[in-house]
Amino acid sequence: MDRHTWAQDVFRCHLCESPGPRMYCDICHIHLCKGCVGEHLSDESKDHRVVPFKKRGLNPKCLKHSTQLCDLYCEQCVIPICLECVSSSEHLGHKQVGILKILDSKREAFQRDIKELENSIYPKYQEIASNIHVKKADIKENSQKLTTALEKHGEYLHRELDNAIKKLKSDVIEMEFKHLVVLEKQENEIKRSISEIKQNIEDLTKLLNSNDVSHISTFKSRNAEFRRLPPRLTVFLPTFTPQKINKEQIYQQIGSLSALSIKTEEHGYTMDSPGAESSPLNRPLIDAPRSITEINTEYGHSNELLNVSCLGDDEVWTSGTDKTIRLYNLNSKLVKSVRSKSWKRPWGIAVKQSGEIVYTDPYERTVNIMKNTQIQTVIRLREWYPFYVCTTSSGDLLLVMITDDQKQTKVVSYSGYSEKQTIQYNDKGQPLYSSQFGPKHISENKNLDICVADNEARAVVVVNQAGKLRFTYTGPPSTTKKPFKPVGITTDSQSRILTADINNHCIHILDQDGQFLRIIDNCHLQSPYGLCVDTRDNLFVGELMTCKLKKIQYCM
Known about the structure:
The chain is of the alpha+beta class.
């Protein structure tokens, strides 16, 4: 028997008691057959909402107006709302969407999370766990080899060397124990994470099939947490070096074991970002970009909002003309604020894959890493000022720097805070970038191109990974009202390039080869400046004039 049909047979019409009612009143919470719907609606003492049995419960009761059902969802307040809520001033100016649309949107997000967990994150954790088993076997095998070598050497040295051999064997056992303790600790942590991932998949699957809007709307994705993979442990296995026997210097002649060494690499394991599987999710541009959320900030005319950098999908780091870097969530809440080490303005900011924030301090000629509230200087320059910065897919840093006399500008790649590559001239020996102190925001594209929005040159300059000039974009084919003046720049999962045109209050979108695609000019932008995109390719725009952050949907 079909399970759904059996479930309906259990219920009876509230009025005529006929089995298998196919309708339901969401307000009265009673089952109705089609023949009794009219009679039920004739009771005008209260409101009714009769829906097909399968669609019961999709519209929750309003938390503020208990007699009303919620047909809409306020994206800024993140709650379902009814028509009485809409008519009140509480949600005035807020973006509102249909409750069914937000339900479908949430389900799509859950499906993407489940796909990423099942296809990428969970297998990666299994792979790491498997690697630990291999390392443990290698350690045991190596320990056995060392023990055997020591025993053979001990037989040769006879009684005079027994004590020394026992000492070294004890060292081997101790090092094995320490190795295994470290690996087993990480193994237990990974097993716990795997268990949590499996539970998260189950929870998401349940929510995917649920109509409980309250639980669905409040559920927080943990994928960003799980993407931060555990550090890689590199075990340097000890070796035994035998020496010729010298009875006067027995201990020195026996040999020695190399010291116990375990190297922890925070980014030893890597994985693709969401949607970056072998066939990336196609996200075409939509006809009419729309502003989803507006975030109010503490910035103002005396402290303009300049830089933005996404931390996951729900929070954005910001900086302006004062000494403080601030983290905001989508509800305009100030989550965290940290002053720069020198108490001077951070010029450029970027978020690393690990969640640490990088900022430049040209006043001190330094590049700094901020983890929690601790700040560490990792790069210190001479004769050059570091201004703008971005992180790369490989974990490197790209810095835009200018000389004291404003005669030279270059982009420098740093790996592990050591200079790796310099990009300064084209094939003809001419400078790629203007040398003045004007804005030169930088971003790495998904195809590894390096994109610089050179405000003074009124151009976006794009070079490939080797530093060879690919193209220069100087504005759209059709003439804009004012000259093209790019400031902020970012790239999305489709390798599209987005740059803010502060003169014309709009965003230019190019493909990876520099072909103009469109302009975003319908979201009431006022002096757009800083740009970043989240993992879903939502665009965050910091406005210089209003000091607001706008979250814009521009693609599917």
